[in-house]
Amino acid sequence: MSTHDAADRPGQTAGLRYLGPTTRLDRGFNAVVGWLAAHGVSLYGSRVLAVRGRTSGQWRTNPVNPLTVDGQRYLVAPRGHTQWVRNIRVAGGGELRLGRRCEAIRVEEVPDAAKGPILRAYVRAWGWEVGQFFNGIDRHSSDDDFARIAPGFPVLRILPGESARTGLNGTAA
């Protein structure tokens, strides 16, 4: 798997963890899950996340697996600081889509110190799909193990949002 350094956020340093899709199977699986969600079929809760690109302003979409822990919903980026993570940080929100249904969302970052239980729940729920990105960490790993890996896994709390269907300059898209 390839790891890339990134410095796309103001004040952000290089060296952020990112694992891109490296095989045709990875890309194909993401494409199939995204296509199904775009057509209203959710695999275990999957959705299409739509976020405005931070420079282009164009909608960018990726399949995601929203997770609910103690009544709160989260997005976890198992591949690290991906393009969708960088875009949503700048945009502050986006849309979760399933077929024709569209939910406007805002997000806030979860501090590294609070990520452990969320990452454990994510691995428990989605390990069959994303376990390869956790480098041997599984649902039986210690709290210390989850705390150690937390900085490499962005976790975003999902909050209700206003319509994201506006352009960068605030005009209707």
Structure description:
27% of the residues lie in helices and 24% in strands. With 173 residues, it is α+β, with helices and mostly antiparallel strands. It has a seven-stranded antiparallel β-sheet with strand order 2-1-5-6-7-4-3, with helices on both faces. β5 (93-98) and β6 (101-109) form a beta hairpin. α3 (116-130) crosses α4 (143-149). The longest helix is centred in the first third of the chain and has 15 residues, at 24-38. It is globular and about 40 Å long.
Helical residue percent band: 25-40%
Portion in strands: 15-25%
Q: Largest sheet at a glance?
A: 7 strands, antiparallel
Give the class-level CATH name: Mainly Beta
Fourth-tier CATH superfamily name: Electron Transport, Fmn-binding Protein, Chain A
Low-pLDDT runs: 1-13, 166-173
Give me the secondary-structure topology.
Blueprint: H1 24-38, E1 47-52, E2 59-64, E3 67-69, E4 72-76, H2 83-91, E5 93-98, E6 101-109, H3 116-130, H4 143-149, E7 155-160
Antiparallel strand pairs: 1-2, 1-5, 3-4, 4-7, 5-6, 6-7
Helix pairs in contact: 3-4
How would you summarize this macromolecular structure in one to three sentences?
This protein has 173 residues and is of the alpha+beta class. The chain contains four helices and seven strands; from the N terminus they run αββββαββααβ. The chain has a single domain, classed as Electron Transport, Fmn-binding Protein, Chain A (Pnp Oxidase, Chain A, Roll).
